[in-house]
Amino acid sequence: xxxxxxxxxxxxxxxxxxxxxxxxxxxxxxxxxxxxxxxxxxxxxxxxxxxxxxxxxxxxxxxxxxxxxxxxxxxxxxxxxxxxxxxxxxxxxxxxxxxxxxxxxxxxxxxxxxxxxxxxxxxxxxxxxxxxxxxxxxxxxxxxxxxxxxxxxxxxxxxxxxxxxxxxxxxxxxxxxxxxxxxxxxxxxxxxxxxxxxxxxxxxxxxxxxxxxxxxxxxxxxxxxxxxxxxxxxxxxxxxxxxxxxxxxxxxxxxxxxxxxxxxxxxxxxxxxxxx
Amino acid sequence: xxxxxxxxxxxxxxxxxxxxxxxxxxxxxxxxxxxxxxxxxxxxxxxxxxxxxxxxxxxxxxxxxxxxxxxxxxxxxxxxxxxxxxxxxxxxxxxxxxxxxxxxxxxxxxxxxxxxxxxxxxxxxxxxxxxxxxxxxxxxxxxxxxxxxxxxxxxxxxxxxxxxxxxxxxxxxxxxxxxxxxxxxxxxxxxxxxxxxxxxxxxxxxxxxxxxxxxxxxxxxxxxxxxxxxxxxxxxxxxxxxxxxxxxxxxxxxxxxxxxxxxxxxxxxxxxxxxxxxxxxxxxxxxxxxxxxxxxxxxxxxxxxxxxxxxxxxxxxxxxxxxxxxxxxxxxxxxxxxxxxxxxxxxxxxxxxxxxxxxxxxxxxxxxxxxxxxxxxxxxxxxxxxxxxxxxxxxxxxxxxxxxxxxxxxxxxxxxxxxxxxxxxxxxxxxxxxxxxxxxxxxxxxxxxxxxxxxxxxxxxxxxxxxxxxxxxxxxx
Lengths: 276, 477
Known about the structure:
The structure holds 2 protein chains of 2 kinds. By secondary structure, chain A is mostly helical.
């Protein structure tokens, strides 16, 4: 047993520096993009929306690229797909700024990802880039996300007084497109696909799920778009923790990212109906 | 998942809403009932699911309390009651699961012990053990590798023929865990138990696997001991059967021997009786009387030889050994004399004699050597056809320095290979249609061997059925 651990340890030890270095590069570039976007947001006045979009897209692109780095163990091949995905995110963010219909450009991101994943299919299967073992897993994912979303709507409207409704079809669909092409996609790609899958290979389910869910939770709690009220933070912690754990369970059970992705999209589809 | 606990949860929620709609109602503790029910019926999964559902149903009222009252005592109380159904459902469910798993393991152990005590081959039983272990632990694959002591190790796997998972699962979405445990019944490792599962290999599974490995090792050890005992018993039974068979053969041989002895004794006795009555009752001319007396002498000599053989046999069987009077004598003269006598008595046989020059004098019991020669010549004549050739050789043994070789060869019926080991045993007479009526007690060769051994020599035989036999007696010079 000790010999086996030692061997695997040696393998990890040899691989870790390249992954860490690549992640550092991704983090630096994402921070640079976000910083530039922030600076542009404050410095460009009326045209500051460009900067806001750039900052938002940079963060999402960072998650996207980070997922590629972990998926490919820091090999050179991650740069191309990461760059194309990041470009698609930036373009979509700018298009969404111009017009709500432009948010449909977010739908390009999954297509870009699907195209880039082709050559790496066998490698990406390890992180769940494959159809689920059972198609009912997708239904279960949809049911889980819908249940949590509806519960959120009921709890928020009945107890916290948030209004429920669709502010406008175009705005709602734009938000939904953002969730489909950026928010839910990058969350599943990085936190469940890359992080949880990698951790689950080393640890058992619960520690791996806890760490990846905690990372996803921090990402949402630090999101400036989340209302900063205490009850909103508590609610986000409650629901996003459950959603994260449910997505990890779906990923582990079905072997695929798709059910968790569907659950996340369904949850955010309900969340977007809350007029916060 | 039974609908009962879920319906009960809905009923309790409806009661709370219809009653006060207040999360602080003491009715909320009723949520424990369906969680407990589900946990007992469906284990941790059922308990957790119903407990989670109860928590969700309580959550809106607790959230409103948080907004209204802040972090007050009723809120803390509400938060605790929010989590208790889930915690209890999980805990009780886990205990139920563990209890069921333990029961399943005990049942599996019984089945394993039963299967190892089966009558099939050990490999087949081992495969069944692997299959039972896989079922008991709920893992994907089980491999058993046993050190056979000599040669290749004995292996069994379940599912049957499943290979190493590394190549298959390295790119899989679900990691494969493998646990290798020694099979040790307290006398050092006898092999390994390898279990593999896609996904988690939890603490309870690992503990169960360790316990099972110990029990499997003990069961295998017991099976091996039982197998060994069974083999020993079988060997013992075979030996007893062989010994019984041998005793039966000896008994039958003795019966035959008695019959033959009676016959052999009666023939000369009848002759003695007949000739003596003739001499006593009738007036017989002197020439004829002399002839009768010669017959009486011949038959009495024959009777004497039979009695002497029997006495010698009795002495050999009682372990007293033969008393020898060793003295130097000329083997050539003894052999020539016997060949002459046999040639006269059996005119239809051709006797060839070959004596080496010079032949060293033999220091032995002359009478004993004389009986050896007579017995061998008698057998050669008895078991060869009329007109057959009998070759007698006397010479120093070329391959055994210091020994003198006396060989008698015939071209008779020969001896089957399977009968060769038995021909020197007493009472043995080989059944053959051509020699069934030949006189004899079946003692000749056993006496030859006994006499040769008594001199410190030995007897060898070569024979081909249908071609003839060659007996070779080696005696110290």
